[in-house]
Write a structure and sequence with these properties.
Blueprint lengths: L2 H24 L8 E2 L2 E2 H6 L10 H11 L4 H8 L7 H10 L10 H14 L8 H7 L3 H13 L9
Antiparallel strand pairs: 1-2
Helix pairs in contact: 4-6, 6-8
Amino acid sequence: MGIKGRNYWIGAMLVGLAVALLVVVLIPARVHEPVYEGKPLRYWLMEFDYGVDSPNRSPARHAIQCMGTNALPFLIRYLRVKDPPFYSQGLTLKKNLRFLRFPDNSATAWHLRAALACEELSQNMEPAIPALAESMNDPRVAQLVGAMKSKRIAISVRPQ
């Protein structure tokens, strides 16, 4: 093998190593949400959508309490979620496709779900307070949580 052949293989190995390094750095390891009774935190948070009087709410509250502080990093992430750039156009499309039912995955819905879950962890939620305060800048979340606190009324983020 000549010098050109050797340089080619060394270059190819360096390029391959660089690509592998980029893949490892840019694609973070997926950390799994806490699970209760085989269902992830996301599932239990969506159970809050049915309102205060729903039979789904009590098991969801219990699940959040059992997950405890293990749920906090994920609740903080849900409190900080932002809507994608073209989300409003997607909502228009969903309204036009009335025959299809979609869950509400707006940032406001996730802020509200996470805020309700933080209430279940009231004793241990101190690390989530900055993210909770940040999500309260969303006027709809602040209004809904305020109404819940003052009147203890049923509020649902599910579309009717």
